[in-house]
């Protein structure tokens, strides 16, 4: 029995060695698998694309041509235009250029030039405008060497609101063809082409067909010698009849009766309403008051006083068909009562 124990111990020892070896190999395999899984996770900072180690090759720039337009720089999208386009002629008094970038131009205005079809009036004459440009000088094209102090330009600009506070500034751009260099009796754009300001306005002027002059016909007129006769001998026109006024009419007027006799519109309506409508004479006469300068009966018929610039009074009476009457009245010496001096009928030309 004593000889068997050493043999068992050696056998157990061999089994133990083999078990340790198996455990060690297993640990190594598990460690290798773990490292492999780590390698398979791509780093977020390393591109999986192959790295090009070749030196970069400069690409040839496209050939420049004389027809190539200067690079255009747009105003910031969040700038809001808050005025119509405005235009002035002025002289550059100051400007700021940094790294070939024109930041601003100060322009002393010598003339306002309202753009075509701009109904808004403005007056900058004598003021110095601070215009934000913020654009490369190259955008001025052939005008680059003209953009300096003392040069005169015709400039288009507008007001813009800048967020977040809504500060309002004046801004313009070379690239929008908003600058025109002033030469003798003309202007030049950034492409070197002449700009005819007068031609622009002429082209925009609406074509109008001249209105034919109406045919004028004198229906009634007092002679000069009749104008200086005594009051009771001057013909008084009333509804196509010619009569004289008795002395009592002038006396009663002086006492305050019938004050309408000195109102041009009322006298014309009462005495000449037959010209407008012979059937409605009474109705028309009742419309008149002693103080009105214009009476509108309907869309086609009206009576209004117009200025003459002399001692006479003129009333225009209209009626359907485009027909009108120029009625001239005067007050003879010694009274304010108005007499019809002349009636002219105006008929549209056919």
Please sum up the structure shown.
This protein has 350 residues and is α+β, with helices and mostly antiparallel strands.
> Can you tell me the residue ranges where pLDDT is under 50 for at least 5 consecutive residues?
1-8, 37-72
Strand content: 25-35%
Strand tally: 17
Helix and strand run: HEEEEEEEEEHEHEEHHHEEEEE
Defining key terms:
elongated, 5-stranded mixed beta barrel, 6-stranded antiparallel sheet
Kindly describe this structure.
With 350 residues, this protein is α+β, with helices and mostly antiparallel strands. 22% of the residues lie in helices and 31% in strands. The protein has helices at 4-40, 197-204, 224-227, 247-254, 264-276, 281-287; strands at 80-81, 86-98, 101-112, 128-136, 152-162, 167-171, 179-183, 186-188, 194-195, 215-221, 236-238, 241-243, 294-296, 302-306, 313-319, 323-330, 339-347.
